[in-house]
Specification:
The protein has 125 residues and is of the alpha+beta class. It contains 6 helices and 4 strands; from the N terminus they run ααβαβαααββ. It folds into 2 domains: 1-33, no CATH class; 38-124, no CATH class. Helices cover 45% and strands 16% of the residues. Strand 3 (110-114) and strand 4 form a beta hairpin. The longest helix is centred in the middle third of the chain and has 14 residues, at 72-85.
């Protein structure tokens, strides 16, 4: 089953989430994914956020706090601490070590999050 067909059957609820995960992550001989050695390693994360419902002082605080890019090693440290202390993350079986490894090789990624409460931009380089 090709990935597109698999994702479509998952969308249509013809397939369980865990089964789809296993099928997507099973090793394939003809995989077109890049080899680990060819991935670019990220070194910094730049975070910017705007909270329109908060005061100007709060927005200024966050702009000052995240004015400089953060090294990946510091972000990984905070993620691991959050993973150990957050009851919600442990209940949902979210593996923070895996997320840290994914971030390490996500060079060039940009995530924009827009909502009524906040606008957040995360750039990994």
């Amino acid at each position: 089953m090709e990935r597109l067909e698999l994702l479509e059957s998952l969308r249509d609820a013809d397939l369980e989430t865990l089964d789809a995960y296993r099928m997507l992550n099973q090793p394939e001989e003809t995989s077109k994914l890049p080899i680990r050695g060819t991935l670019k390693r990220a070194h910094f994360i730049k975070l910017s956020m705007d909270l329109p419902k908060e005061s100007k002082k709060v927005n200024l605080f966050f702009r000052t706090l995240f004015a400089l890019p953060l090294p990946i090693s510091i972000v990984n440290l905070f993620l691991r601490i959050a993973g150990k202390r957050s009851r919600h993350l442990t209940e949902e079986n979210i593996d923070m070590k895996l997320i840290c490894r994914l971030i390490r090789y996500a060079k060039g990624l940009r995530v924009d999050i827009e909502s009524d409460d906040a606008t957040i931009c995360i750039r990994i380089f």
